[in-house]
Design brief:
The complex is a heterodimer of chains A (116) and B (111).
Chain A (H helix, E strand, L loop, with lengths): L4 E3 L2 E4 L5 E6 L6 E7 L6 E7 L2 E4 L8 E4 L6 E5 L8 E8 L10 E2 L3 E5 L1
Parallel strand pairs in A: 2-11
Antiparallel strand pairs in A: 1-3, 3-8, 4-5, 4-9, 5-6, 7-8, 9-10, 9-11
Chain B lengths: L3 E3 L4 E4 L4 E7 L6 E7 L6 E7 L2 E5 L2 E6 L4 E6 L8 E8 L6 E3 L3 E6 L1
Parallel strand pairs in B: 2-11
Antiparallel strand pairs in B: 1-3, 3-8, 4-5, 4-9, 6-7, 7-8, 9-10, 9-11
The chains are: A mainly beta (116), B mainly beta (111).
């Protein structure tokens, strides 16, 4: 079974530029999560999708971050404009959703973002 | 006060030692308790989960939850160099509520 795919793996941008990350979850997984993991910290949930609907985006900085999950499969997370404090690893995870254990999340390798 | 507190370490132990990793939490509504392992430059992977209080054993790993003290532990017996990683505790109220992670404890098992 293929895992969660993410691209790019690394990205370096200057502040005020924009950036987009892509995630392809495990086939059949209804729930998709985006997390931000700052160095030395645990992952922080940014947004959770159930199919293509948003379940929780309470910690998403909506003035600069946006995410979509068209057709309930792939997802894109965008930052515009980026700030220095956005430097982090952005992790995508997926889970089966209603047919499985909600906490059994499978994580991708992450995208390491550096904002200079 | 953070909802979940975890000592960041690092924790260094000799191979074969018993390792104890711990987290405390403040939200009494948490019902599901998880431990994830994260190798360097990789995403976290679920090790074990426990519902409510009690113990759960899986091979060399034992998870304990004490809801009365709001304290959870992960024990690793006969630790191996391959266990060297960051261990993240995580908790949820259940259903499809979000999962809250601790900061992670970095473990190094020295051969």
């Amino acid at each position: 079974e293929a895992g969660v795919a993410q691209s790019p793996r690394y990205k370096i941008i200057e502040k005020r530029q924009s950036v987009a990350f892509w995630c392809n979850p495990i086939s059949g997984h209804a729930t998709l999560y985006w997390y931000q993991q700052i160095l030395g910290q645990g992952p922080k949930l940014l947004i959770q999708f159930q199919n293509n609907g948003v379940v929780d985006d309470s910690q998403l900085p909506k003035d600069r971050f946006s995410a979509e999950r068209l057709k309930g499969v792939d997802s894109t997370l965008k930052i515009q404009p980026a700030k220095l404090e956005d430097s982090a690893v952005y992790l995508c995870a997926s889970s089966l959703g209603h047919t499985g254990l909600p906490y059994e999340q499978y994580f991708g390798p992450g995208t390491r973002l550096t904002v200079t | 006060q953070k909802e979940v507190e975890q000592d960041p370490g690092p924790l260094s132990v000799p191979e074969g030692a018993i390792v104890s990793l711990n987290c405390t939490y403040s939200n009494s509504a948490f019902q599901y308790f998880m431990w994830y392992r994260q190798y360097s430059r990789k995403g976290p992977e679920l090790l074990m989960y426990t519902y409510s209080s009690g113990n759960k054993e899986d091979g060399r790993f034992t998870a304990q939850v004490d809801k009365s003290s709001k304290y959870i532990s992960l024990f690793i017996r006969d630790s191996q160099p391959s266990d060297s990683a960051t261990y993240l505790c995580a908790m949820s109220r259940g259903g499809y509520q979000k999962v809250t992670f601790g900061t992670g404890t970095k473990l190094q098992v020295i051969p």
